[in-house]
Design goal:
It is a single chain. The protein has five domains: 115 residues, Nuclear Transport Factor 2, Chain: A; 96 residues, Roll (Nuclear Transport Factor 2, Chain: A); 111 residues; 100 residues, Nuclear Transport Factor 2, Chain: A (Roll); 125 residues, no CATH class. It is elongated, with a radius of gyration of 42 Å. Helix content is 38%, strand content 28%. The protein is α+β, with helices and mostly antiparallel strands. The strands form five sheets. It has a five-stranded antiparallel β-sheet. A five-stranded antiparallel β-sheet has the order 10-11-12-13-14. The protein is built from 23 helices and 23 strands. α10 runs antiparallel to α11 and α13 runs antiparallel to α14.
Length: 632
């Protein structure tokens, strides 16, 4: 027994001496380690491979049975190995440059070997490969690549499993933070939607782009972003293929679902402090902060038990949630940390509107409409009665502003007749909700009016006011935009302002008449009296709008043309009595006057060359339409 123990001790000491000998022994032991690794790979021997690699290599790169198959996919070559160069990094680590194959097929790789303290021999700790990335040759760690491929497989399996714990186990903290609180139905639906586009395959050939602690891997039609955390590749996001209305980013969708869930829970609890954290500032400040939330109940927990539908809009994201009575649409805007609208997927979505749609009805109520329509109608009515243009501009839609309020001057707004708008508080007796549009019908004094409101992000605006009238459209917007040039013409005549008269006239009218005059001619009778008679009719066609003031015996017919969003007077007929001789077309009459001797300063040029006075008499020099008519 003693001799046997001594013999073992001598052999052990001898082996240690061999291991510590010069470069020749190191090269031999390195060659053996590389050969063991290469043979196990060629034989597809998982047990032999585990003996040929370090614990780190086994833990990170061989943890799944598909590992050897995936090593082939990563172009690990097998064949005769030749040590070209060895670098002694430390007493327990060497780095060897190895040539695999022969001649033109030969390929150089770098093996990193470490001394396994349990078996006291060199084992492969990593292999550095040169690969074509499609953008040039790059050097990559085999462990990192295999670890990433294993992580891809684990991601695919977990998200196909439809088990919340497995789904969460492969996600990075940023994504997990959004997914974990979600209702199970929503979590499994989101994961299942991604899994549909990432098929499970025996042979996985992911297209990976790695940089530092992040990697982008194309799996099926999904681009998966991985993040390296504590030596584990975890899923940070998954981007689906770019289809219309599809929310591509899983992280963005999960965050939107989480924000919507929090909003609905806070709304049901009446917790406005929590609402302020998940609602957009404009929606919260203008609508929710002072609202009685009980006026518009929103379903709560039942929404979390049914599938959702997500739609990506141009500047927002809509979640359509089903309830027992209809549907709830939660609209979210994406805001960056600076508060500006941005498409960044990492930015925080905030709820900007909620729409309630009930089965069996055509109504869809927006919360902003429910909470704001009464105040908007009252404020707009007050501003309209007061002819307060700045307030009217601030509360109107862009279309209403551009067509009416931005064009009307202070003297014209005071003169414009609005007999249907009485100075009385409106009393609401019916509200019709139609998504973004809300129609509020009121009695205002003795009149019935319908205020048409349009919901904008975080606010309501007046789109039009509908007035029950005969012989003309009910739209106040349409009526006013056609009356404005008429009352601009009146103001120009009153002020002898040829520029103002020209400004409200059509291009053809200006070219033939007003451009040839420096002041407004004396028309011989008062057109203002005819143009300010009550508006009794309006007909609109594709080219012209025809306004009727007064009646067929006394009044005016004005033709308005619309060009490039502006309305101008095309022509007008002044009616001073019955019969054709009392219908005076302004454009034709003034053309005859100009051709008959109207000077550029608005005066008639005397036909007699023997002028006796530089001041013309009223009877001979003032250009009167009536005089021109009598000559016809």
């Amino acid at each position: 027994m003693f001799l046997t123990n001594c013999t073992h001790r001598k052999l052990w000491i001898g082996l240690c001496l061999v291991l510590s000998l010069g470069s020749g022994c190191t090269k031999m032991l390195t060659q053996q380690a590389v050969d063991r690794f290469s043979k196990s790979l060629a034989d597809k021997d998982p047990d032999g491979m585990k003996l040929a690699v370090s614990d780190q290599f086994e833990r990170r790169a061989l943890r799944r049975e598909e590992a050897l198959r995936d090593m082939e996919v990563l172009n690990f070559q097998t064949g005769k190995n030749k040590i070209l160069e060895i670098e002694q990094v430390s007493k327990d680590e060497v780095r060897a440059k190895v040539e695999i194959g022969k001649n033109k097929a030969a390929r150089e790789v770098v093996y990193t070997l470490t001394r396994d303290p349990k078996i006291q021999r060199w084992v492969v700790d990593d292999v550095t490969l040169k690969q074509d990335s499609g953008r040039g040759e790059v050097t990559r760690s085999a462990i990192e690549q295999l670890d990433l491929v294993m992580s891809v497989r684990e991601f695919v399996d977990a998200w196909h499993s439809q088990e919340p714990e497995k789904i969460l186990s492969v996600t990075a903290p940023e994504l997990r933070e959004q997914l974990e609180p979600l209702p199970p139905a929503w979590l499994t639906q989101l994961a299942g939607h991604v899994a549909q586009q990432t098929p499970q395959q025996k042979s996985l050939r992911p297209d990976a782009r790695m940089k530092d602690d992040s990697a982008f891997v194309q799996v099926g039609t999904v681009t998966v972003q991985f993040q390296l955390i504590n030596d584990r590749w975890l899923v940070r996001d998954a981007a689906l293929k770019d289809d219309e209305n599809t929310v591509r980013s899983a992280l963005k969708l999960a965050t939107a679902l989480r924000q919507s869930q929090e909003f609905l829970n806070a709304y049901s609890a009446g917790d406005k402090e929590r609402l302020s954290k998940v609602a957009s500032k404009s929606f919260h400040d203008s609508c929710l902060v002072s609202a009685d939330l009980s006026q518009a109940p929103v379903p709560g927990k039942e929404l979390f038990e049914k599938p959702y539908e997500a739609r990506q809009q141009k500047d927002s994201l809509d979640l359509i949630l089903k309830s027992s009575t209809g549907a709830v649409v939660v609209s979210l805007d994406v805001l960056s940390k600076t508060g500006t609208t941005t498409p960044e997927k990492s930015a925080l979505p905030l709820v900007s509107e909620v729409t309630l749609a009930e089965d069996g009805t055509r109504e869809s109520k927006r919360l902003s409409s429910v909470f704001l329509h009464e105040a908007m109608v009252n404020l707009y009515s007050e501003a309209l009665v007061a002819r307060d243009v700045p307030r009217l501009q601030s509360m109107s839609t862009l279309d209403f502003r551009e067509r009416v309020w931005d064009r009307v001057r202070p003297d014209v707004i005071k003169a414009l007749p609005l007999p249907e708008i009485e100075a009385a508080a409106p009393e609401i007796f019916h509200v019709t909700y139609a998504g973004a549009k809300t129609e509020v019908t009121v009695t205002q004094g003795t009149r019935a009016l319908t205020y048409v409101l349009r919901s904008q992000p975080g606010r309501m605006e007046i789109e039009d006011i509908l007035i029950p009238v005969e012989n003309r459209p009910s739209s106040l917007k349409l009526t006013m935009e056609n009356l404005i040039p008429v009352y601009e013409f009146i103001a120009g005549i009153e002020g002898n302002n040829i520029q103002r008269v020209s400004h409200c006239s059509a291009e053809s009218f200006n070219a033939m008449i007003w451009s040839q005059l420096s002041e407004v001619p004396d028309l011989g009778f008062d057109p203002i009296a005819l143009l300010t008679l009550p508006l009794t009719g309006m007909k609109v066609d594709d080219k012209l709008t025809r306004l009727q003031f007064g009646n067929s015996k006394l009044g005016a017919e004005v033709q308005i043309e619309r060009s490039e969003g502006q309305t101008h007077i095309h022509d007008m007929t002044l009616i001073t009595g019955t019969g054709p001789n009392n219908r005076h077309e302004l454009l034709a009459t003034m053309r005859r006057m100009i051709s008959g001797g109207l000077s550029s300063d608005g005066k008639i040029i005397q036909a007699n060359a023997e002028t006796t006075s530089s001041t013309p008499s009223k009877t001979s020099s003032l250009p009167r339409i009536q005089q021109s008519i009598e000559l016809q």
